[in-house]
Write a structure and sequence with these properties.
Partial AB-hydrolase lipase domain-containing protein, signal, about 325 residues, lipid degradation, lipid metabolism, Rossmann fold
């Protein structure tokens, strides 16, 4: 059980770090931060601290590839994950790099309390008050702070917003509750478009936020390097998001708002094997979104195939660049 709990907090590292039959500590990116992962693949990287109105410092990473005025894109991670998900794979398989190569100004957000956003003006992570927030606070404070910071920094009037799971929940809440913020969004791309956990199926998901420290990563890396345990670690991700192992490259291994009020053009991609956001949840959500410009459903996809799936670039990543240009 202890191994299970620790592995959950590091699910994204398992997808990137554990190779079938290989020792996980051989992966040079095992203990890198997001900037390190970006530099490792040969891309320029910048990192900013964005202060929210409720006192949290959010770490926001940027891939400022190329020169000149380019459309900014903000990518926001899912529940219990972080912005590193978007640069975990090789450049031709990671959405962050694909967007940068397509000429976009890529900004990767980290919401309050995740691995890279654990600082506050007056509170420490050891105080329970630090963790006294919900999806609502993340939507009402984190999203506008990141959007406004990016637009002020780039001099642009609008940006593209890409969310995964919880990242979509925050967008739905923020853009329906704050029309002035919604006006700053060109298009909203919703991957695994989660709004509630009403239909959740995964047996592990009900475990809330867990700490993610270098010490725990070291323990996990050593434990999962054991040949007898590596298979358990490798399959941990499927206990959360649903089973679709053939599509995982193992070598690279709320507050309810009136979302009907959101007028932002929205494109959605969902999966039939998604235990976190099953098809009934997607159907429930689609009924309430008033400006859907595209919806595509992949029956064989689970919750994490949107960024770790081997066929994600062909199925959706390049679609994102198409819709953002038209």
């Amino acid at each position: 059980m202890w191994l299970l709990l620790v592995a959950l907090s590091l699910a994204q590292e398992l997808a990137d770090a554990i190779s079938r039959g290989e020792l996980s500590h051989e992966n040079p990116k095992q203990f890198m931060n997001i900037s390190g992962k970006i530099h490792f693949q040969g891309y320029p990287s910048k990192e900013y601290d964005v202060l929210t109105d409720d006192g949290y410092f959010l770490s926001v990473n940027r891939i400022p590839h190329g020169r000149g005025s380019r459309s900014p894109v903000l990518i926001v991670h899912g529940f219990s994950l972080d912005g590193g998900d978007w640069v975990d794979n090789l450049p031709d398989s990671s959405l962050g790099f694909i967007l940068a190569d397509a000429g976009y100004d890529v900004w990767i957000g980290n919401c309050q309390g995740n691995s890279w956003s654990q600082r506050h003006l007056n509170l420490s992570v050891d105080q329970k008050e630090f963790w006294d927030f919900s999806f609502h606070e993340m939507a009402m404070y984190d999203v506008p702070a990141m959007v406004n910071f990016i637009l002020q920094h780039t001099g642009q009037e609008k940006l593209f917003y890409i969310g995964h799971a919880q990242g979509n929940s925050l967008g739905f809440i923020a853009f329906s509750s704050m029309p002035h913020l919604a006006e700053k969004i060109n298009l909203f791309f919703a991957l695994a478009p989660l709004y509630t956990f009403h239909h959740v199926k995964g047996p592990v998901l009900k475990i809330a936020f867990l700490p993610d420290t270098l010490k725990e990563r070291a323990i996990l890396a050593k434990t999962c390097s054991n040949m007898l345990i590596a298979e358990v670690c490798e399959n941990e991700i499927f206990l959360i998001g649903g089973y679709n192992k053939k599509n995982l490259n193992c070598s690279r291994c709320i507050s309810f708002s009136r979302i009907e009020d959101m007028k932002v053009p929205t494109a959605l991609w969902s999966g039939g094997q998604d235990w976190v956001n099953p098809p009934p949840e997607t159907r429930r959500l689609l009924f309430r979104i008033t400006n859907v410009i595209h919806h595509e459903h992949f029956p064989d996809w689970n919750h994490f195939d949107h960024h770790w799936g081997k066929d994600a670039p062909q199925r959706i990543h390049f679609d994102l660049t198409f819709y953002s240009r038209n």
